[in-house]
Amino acid sequence: MERNPRSLAMAVLFCLLTASGCTGADDAPPELRIEVVGTRPHDPRAFTQGLEISDGVLYESTGLTGASWVRASDLATGAELARAQVPGDFFGEGITRAGATLWQLTWKDNVAYARDPASLAVRGQARYDGEGWGLCTRGERLVMSDGTATLTFRDPISFAVTGTVALDGYRGAHLNELDCAPDGSVYANDYPTDRILRIDPESGRVLGVIDARGLLTPAERARTDVLNGIAHLPGTDRFLVTGKYWPTIFEVRFVPV
Q1: Are 150 and 133 in contact (CB under 8 A)?
Q2: Which end of the chain is more exposed for a tag (fewer CB within 10 A), N or C?
């Protein structure tokens, strides 16, 4: 069938003027699935908001107004090393280790707590605008989500904003818990789905879409909440993933569909 040159030119112009451009099936990011290679017990009372691994320690933060806490446990044995409450009625959110500081977000309270990584005691705090959801450390800056399709970069010392990037082609995503992987990409839970997005934080391009359905039985799904919590296992190609009130932490690989 012949193409009308003028119509073709108008279509190309439309693609250039739209923010996301026109992409075909070949431009879609790879689809991946989860391969479970192991499991660990998880506290089914934990309304998980953040998961982080650093120096052999698994850090976890939880939410709920007036009942939020952060915990450090031995990655190898699961033994609890320290636990601390979030002050007052604040709702805890994501965490990340940045050097000698463990940063913890709050949801709508506009406060980030700077904690001691060993004792989990609060050593300071910083204020920010908007909501706090997920947090991870990538090189010399923090990466933060606020429930939208935009990532915000912050200074690991002052917590000041140093830049932002919006997802390319995924403006409806609600980025939640984050993990900054060694390859430079950021993995993000897309609330409230069972989808994990692998993101290039420099461009906002989505590099992969991971289907994490089927980890829980129907009975477990009935008494739990959403997938939330992802942490790369150092020195491996594996991640730990879990969710709010989940009874299990899954050790997984992300493999092609």
Answers
A1: no
A2: N
- Would you state the structure tokens that stand for residue 152, as one six-digit string? 């915000």
**Within a 10 A sphere around the Cβ of 221, how many other Cβ atoms?**
15
DSSP-assigned letters across all residues of 25-39: GGGSPPEEEEEEEEE
CA–CA separation, 111 vs 129, rounded Å? 9
The secondary structure element, H or E, covering residue 140 is none
pTM of the complete model: 0.89
Angle at Cα 61 formed by Cα 158 and Cα 189, nearest 5°?
A: 90
Under a CB-based contact definition with an 8 Å cutoff, are residues 144 and 111 in contact? no
**Residues 113/103, Cβ–Cβ less than 8 Å:** yes
Q: Residues 87-145: pLDDT tens digits?
A: 999 999 999 999 999 999 999 999 999 999 999 999 999 999 999 999 999 999 999 99
Length of the chain: 257
